[in-house]
Amino acid sequence: MSKFYIETFGCQMNAHDSEKVVGTMLAKGYTQVESPDDADFVLYNTCSIRDKAEQKVYHRLDTFKNGSGKGKRFGVLGCVAQQEGEAIFEKAPHVNLVVGSASYSKLPELLVQLENGAQRVTGLSLDADEAFETPLTRRDNPHKAYITIIEGCDKNCTYCVVPFTRGRERSRQSSSVMDEARQLVDLGYTEIMLLGQNVNSYRDPSSEGWDFATLLARIAEIPGLRRLRFTTSHPRDFVREIVDAISENPVICNFVHLPVQSGSNYVLERMDRLYTRERYMECISWMKASPRDIALSTDIIVGFPGETDRDFEQTMRLLGEVEYSSIFSFKYSPRPNTGALALEDHVPEEVKRQRLLALQEHQRQIQIRLNENLVGRLEEVFVDGFNQSTGQWIGKTSQFRTLNFTVPANTVPVSGSLAGQYRTVRVTRSGPNSLAGEMLLSA
Ligand code: 5AD
Ligand code: SF4
User: Fold this and answer.
1) Residue 186: exposed, middle, or buried by beta-carbon count in 10 A (0-12, 13-18, 19+)?
2) What is the dihedral angle through the alpha carbons of 303, 304, 305, 306, rounded to the nearest 10 degrees?
3) Distances from the Cα of 359 to the Cα of 264, 314, 328, angstroms
4) Enclosing H/E stretch for 405
5) Could you say which ligand is closest to the alpha carbon of residue 339?
6) Nearest CA to 325 among 267, 377, 229, 258?
7) Which strands make up the sheet holding 326-331, listed edge to edge?
8) Most Cβ neighbours (<10 Å): which of 261, 297, 337, 415?
9) Is the CB of 304 under 6 A from ligand 1?
10) pLDDT given for residue 103 in this prediction
């Protein structure tokens, strides 16, 4: 039992949890392999936000049902594990380990139980009173790092499983966050992304009592840090001080993901989102007034129970007013235990499908227009890597736009890899989803 394989589904919180799980496994003497075929232990870190995400893990497990998984052990981690618990053993009897996202600190002892011959072990407590941190985290990217600042969620959005899968909100001590951020910068990381289900409700449990805006401003002051990002925000807890922090320190990227879900007050109320369209637009107006040219993105759910054509129209209009640089849009998916299951007036699948298409087309036109306006601009990019098939380098702007670029021909060739470096690029072309340009040599 020495080789493990892990596949991760879902959000950045899950991606970061997997980095912690990998670090824990490596420290216990396991080695990581790239294919489940080569593994003795196959782990899936799962997402249950929508039904489609949840079904993925069962599809994966099914492929090992008829004997092909013989000799292997299987673990289901994360949100599906927490939501389904021991029922996973019924659906997929070859699973040996089920661990929810609030119980990763128990992973080492659960592994010992398995090593000692246990066939089925679980870690499903939601009582964790602290965010799970481990010095063993094995980060995937040598230049960009995630830091969890708050876990869980105390909101009760009626469509959402997260309060059931990730438990109550708990913030990390600011000193521990600051120490980790400084260590990462010392190790050469230049971009940090602060993570939480709702980073805006961060509240330092120590006597310092920092709120999120203070934490953001303090981390941004760490010498050597070039870019600081955060996700995800909740409009109810989003305050003007966060925008002030962005305006005052260019290390904090001029990009904010602020999920609106719907442009209709009626739907927002049925979702129990705790804000109105007007309050949301007030947050947007603070950002539009910032000298930093803050780009915005959002999440939208179409076809929530009771959503009429007129409600949907209001969401369409909101997209036009805000002019997001990108959106994530979803058809409402009924989830276990959630309040919305009790709501009437479910929207037919075909209507949901049409609304999603219309929304995405509307947004595509907005993005085409916004990106066209960037042609000619000089942008600083953080280089992610090289795309062999297009011969372009891939970078991200501070506004989180993808900018693919070439190095001018007939000039001194760029030696070595640009990955992890910052370069200035002139934008020469634009599309709905990305920009293209040419690197300035002097930069
Ligand atoms: N159905 C569809 N979309 C959902 N989301 C959360 N729960 C559901 C659901 N039941 C979306 C929200 C959230 C994003 C992470 O996923 O838009 O912001
Ligand atoms: Fe999916 Fe939410 Fe769990 Fe992230 S926290 S993996 S989005 S269910």
Assistant:
1) exposed
2) -80
3) 14, 11, 10
4) strand 402-406
5) 1
6) 258
7) 255-257, 295-302, 326-331
8) 261
9) no
10) 87
- C-alpha distances in Å from residue 312, one per residue of 301, 327, 347, 357: 10, 16, 12, 12
Read off the amino acid at residue 327.
I
**Helix axis angle, 212-220 to 240-248, nearest 10°:** 10
Residue 417: per-residue pLDDT: 87
Distances (CA, A) of 216 to 44, 178, 247, 339: 32, 10, 12, 33
Domains assigned to the chain: 3-123 (3.40.50.12160), 144-372 (3.80.30.20), 378-439 (2.40.50.140)
Residue whose structure tokens are 């002019």: 323
As averages over each run of 10 residues, the pLDDT of the chain (443 residues) reads 92 95 93 95 97 96 86 95 96 95 87 92 84 84 95 96 93 96 97 97 97 98 98 98 98 98 98 98 98 98 98 98 98 97 97 98 98 98 95 97 90 72 97 97 66
CA distances from 315 to 230, 237, 262, 307, 368 (A): 25, 21, 5, 10, 19
Q: Cα(121)–Cα(98) distance, rounded to whole angstroms?
A: 7
Q: Which of 370, 271, 373 is nearest to 315 (CA)?
A: 271
Helix (H/G/I), strand (E/B), else coil: 408: coil
CA–CA distance, 282 with 165 (Å, rounded to integer): 31
Task: Measure the CA–CA gap between 58 and 63, rounded to whole angstroms.
Answer: 9
Distance CA 47, CA 83 (A): 10
- Residue nearest atom 4 in ligand 2 by C-alpha distance: 11
Q: Whose CA is nearest to atom 1 of ligand 2?
A: 47
* Nearest CA-CA partner of 355 in 315, 298, 319: 315
**Among 80, 158, 159, which residue has the most ligand 1 atoms within 8 Å of its CB, making it the best to mutate?**
159
Amino acid at 317: R
Rounded distance, CA 19 to CA 21, Å? 5
205 Rama class: left (phi>0) / alpha (psi -120 to 50) / beta: alpha
Residue of the CA atom closest to atom 7 of ligand 1: 160
* Residue indicated by tokens 């971009």: 191
Helix or strand or coil: residue 355? helix
Question: In what helix (H) or strand (E) does residue 177 lie, and over which residues does it extend?
Answer: helix 174-186
